[in-house]
Amino acid sequence: MHRLLDIPLGSSTGMPASRLSLQRVRHAYAEHLAVDDVSLEVMPGEVVCLLGPSGCGKTTLLRIAAGLERLQHGELRLGEEMLDEAEGHHVPPEKRGVGLAFQEAALFPHLSVLENVAFGLDNLPPSRRRARAMQWLEQLGMAARADTYPHMLSGGQQQRVALARALAPEPRLMLLDEPFSSLDARLREQIRDDTLHALKRVGAGTLLVTHDPEEAMFMADRIALMREGRVVQWGTPYQLYCQPQTPFVVTFFGAVNEWVGEVREAKVMTPAGVVAAPALAEGSRARVMVRPEALRVTHDGALMERPVGDVGIFARVVMAKLLGRSSLLHLAVPDEKGQEVHWHAQVPGVFLPRAGQSVALQLEPSQCFAFPA
Ligand SMILES: Nc1ncnc2c1ncn2[C@@H]1O[C@H](COP(=O)(O)OP(=O)(O)OP(=O)(O)O)[C@@H](O)[C@H]1O
């Protein structure tokens, strides 16, 4: 169950939440350019996720924001304060008033769980320090282990204590690197939810690194999707998912059905129906991407209800699998030459037609995208 505690607001760092701004940041390890001209901002109270495949530069950017890597090029500000300039002014990590939680929990081994969380609360009187640390341990489900030591905890438990320690001073900025990665699936959902509400209550801006698109969609107000050191798209989860600017952005959020066809009157004909291609030149080749949930599947009979003139498209069910919250249908869909292509449809709830059965298809246009081939 969720434990949303009434933790009093007000930063014990004594610093108001501020806007983080990274401008034109570039970072190389020897010859290797890990971050290439990245600019982004995190507003107070906003959760921004750095999302992208392994090695794309997410952690490097977070370490720069934390002050653990010296800035090589560009500018880093928190509110009005310049935190870092290439070959110039550098505010060390402990003077930045930011909360950090990294993949590996890095708790102080000689301090108890409670002492670890109370460590950063030295601005508070001792009696309030203990109470505040206990409240955060309770929020993250670790209050019962307050007197134990880090080596007596599992990796996931250590991660929860590290999160409590980072959140307890209610810093003006939180920097989190894959903070839920060593939690099992069920616990991860709960701790994510608790952390999101805690971050929103504290009102600090948050920069969170993840390679998991679902986690980014769950946590973020805005997402910076990265590839090979660059931000390839920056916007709200809705913008990235529903208005992707490149095929990479589409596929990063999950496998899609693909088709290459010719643009005719700003449309492309696919085996499952027509997809709009308003931005593409007449007669050019288009790469069409259709998310599995864009395929609306009904039993043939339902077609009787459809308006006259709405020509039906039919497919043969190859197999149907229940995934839990949705069903995945493997379909053989005939193309214009009568050859069958293999497409996937994801349908909400339990929908399990038999193999060999004929079903009718319609396309949901908002989840179909056309790019130059
Ligand atoms: N200390 C280092 N020395 C040399 N190269 C490094 C160092 N740290 C990172 N790199 C390289 O820089 C690139 C970016 O690494 P970074 O850790 O920022 O990526 P990431 O997106 O966080 O990856 P992951 O999701 O796997 O943690 C990678 O190619 C990595 O090998």
TrEMBL record:
The transmembrane segments are none
Under the heading SUPFAM superfamilies, the entry gives:
MOP-like, P-loop containing nucleoside triphosphate hydrolases
Q: In this protein, which residues make up the domain named ABC transporter?
A: 20-253
Pfam families registered for this protein in UniProt: ABC_tran (PF00005), TOBE_2 (PF08402)
Q: Which GO terms describe its molecular function?
A: ATP binding
What does the UniProt keyword field contain? ATP-binding, Cell membrane, Ion transport, Iron, Iron transport, Membrane, Nucleotide-binding, Transport
Q: List the protein's name.
A: ABC transporter ATP-binding protein
